[in-house]
């Protein structure tokens, strides 16, 4: 499937390998890697190999693999508590204008407590 990437986009450049990342998983339409500013250990990002800023602009064929990849990451990391988050637009806290899903592990804060 032909991907559509943008020269100036940080995440498109990560997909192309022009910017280094810690890759977790890749499919023909999707790329997953660790967030550079993790909210918790293992915070991952899942992105389509298609440059669309917001979810409603993304063709379905590039959306199809994103949640299955997020699911594989959650299973591989053996996560019990986690959030899957997807922001659209500046007021909704989107910083990088390329569709992405966060997989954010929720550490067990009760560990070690008596
Ligand atoms: P947003 O606020 O747009 O939903 O989230 C963007 C996320 O991308 C942030 O959590 C931020 O840490 C991450 N990020 C921004 N630039 C880079 C980068 O160059 N590499 C990686 N791995 N993550 C990035
Ligand atoms: Zn992009």
TrEMBL record:
Q: Which residues form the active site?
A: 100 (tele-amp-histidine intermediate)
Q: Is Cell inner membrane one of the keywords UniProt gives this record?
A: no
Presence of keyword Hydrolase: yes
Pinpoint the HIT domain residues.
10-113
GO MF term (any one): bis(5'-nucleosyl)-tetraphosphatase (asymmetrical) activity
Give the GO terms filed under biological process for this record: nucleotide metabolic process
The enzyme's E.C. designation = 3.6.1.17
Task: Tell me the leader sequence span.
Answer: none
Keywords carried by this UniProt record: Hydrolase
- Enzyme class comes to hydrolase
Which residue numbers does the motif Histidine triad motif cover?
98-102
Q: What is this protein called?
A: Adenosine 5'-monophosphoramidase
- Origin species: Coemansia biformis
- Gene of origin? HNT1
